[in-house]
Amino acid sequence: MNAEPPAPQESLRCGVVGDPIAHSLSPALHRAGYAALTLPASYDARRVTAGGLAAHVAGLGPQWRGLSVTAPLKREALDLASTATDRARLAGGANTLVRRAGSDGAWHADNTDLPGAVAAIRERYDATISAAVVLGGGATAASTGLALAELGAQRITVAVRDSARAEETVAAIRRHPAGPEVLTVDLGDHVPTDEELVVSTVPAAAQGPDLVARFAPVPVLFEVVYDPWPTPLAAAHSGQVVTGLDLLVHQAVLQFELFTGYQGPLAAMRAAGEAALRQRASRPPQD
What we know:
The protein is of the alpha/beta class.
């Protein structure tokens, strides 16, 4: 890793892809990092629908260095990459694609959600985690579930509406070398008992009064949704809250280094995310 920002050169291009994408804070975070280090780089958001990632990547020019990948494309990203990190394979999905220099345009897949979630939790909560529950069964649920295993959780319960749709996520968490016990339960009726932490990956609109009443009492909430904020769960929770912005910033710092070779400026990137959320909150409601 270099110690000083590079001299001006041909601008590298990076961006975030997913569907929906207009809400993403990633451009604000990465652009703030480039500005703080005076790096000649740009970062844009592009809407790419399910099944369209390979075609989109194939059309990118040689100046493109990296992509942040969000829902619903994380498993597609892993499939199209020529190489991948062990943690991306373990999670069964990638949130990061990096074009390696001298690789004839080949892309390398990584998953910074996993270490980003570990860092986000430990920044806010440093006590033991022996049991936790994850709401939702998508790619983010897999990454955060694996992060819980990294942090020592011996029992991880995945609460979903349709257990069949969570099979890949459950299998990914069970593959963790720590060998946690992984259970699948119905999101509609599960009542937590001794879990220290609940991870919510479900949209704010799906957080009805019954779900909030059942899961808000868990001592620690890791709410991965950051817009709108606060979600119903976050608003009702009286204990420690790890936010979606915490996760986004920590994983973005890791992506920043993968894309540029320079350590991401955590404070500047977090401040940019906080400012963007405040600006959104101040806008008048739309009819």
